[in-house]
Amino acid sequence: MSDADTVLDVRDRDEPPFPAISEALDDLGPDETMRLVNSFEPVPLYDVLADRGFDHETERVADDEWHVAIRRA
């Protein structure tokens, strides 16, 4: 997975991560990539990404760590 312009780590958040993810997606430029770091595979997010015009690539880097590279389609 290539270097990302933005990294958003939501593993230790007390609040639900979706609002922070949504805001970060809004701020993502046309040629930028965001790496989302999560403690589980965020499968429900994939449909949201597709609906909003994003592609993603997911990599499991540890039992409790997943990286999702997100970019505009």
Account of the protein in words:
It is a single chain. With 73 residues, the chain is an alpha+beta fold. Helices cover 26% and strands 37% of the residues. It has two helices and four strands, in the order E-H-E-H-E-E. It has a four-stranded mixed β-sheet, with helices on one face. The two termini are 17 Å apart.
Alpha carbon gap, first and last residue: 17 Å
Helical residue percent? Answer: 25-40%
Tell me the count of domains.
Answer: 1
Largest sheet: 4 strands, mixed
Share of residues in strands: 35-45%
Shape: globular
- Strand tally is 4
Strand order of the largest sheet: 1-2-4-3
CATH architecture: 2-Layer Sandwich
User: Helix and strand succession?
Assistant: EHEHEE
Alpha-beta classification: alpha+beta
Number of helices: 2
Radius of gyration: 11 Å
Mean pLDDT: 95
CATH topology: Translation Initiation Factor IF3
CATH class annotation: Alpha Beta
Summarize the structure.
The protein has 73 residues and is α+β, with helices and mostly antiparallel strands. Helix content is 26%, strand content 37%.
Keywords, separated by commas or semicolons:
73 residues; Translation Initiation Factor IF3; four-stranded mixed β-sheet
Helices, strands, pairings?
Elements: E1 6-9, H1 18-27, E2 33-38, H2 43-51, E3 54-62, E4 65-72
Parallel strand pairs: 1-2
Antiparallel strand pairs: 2-4, 3-4
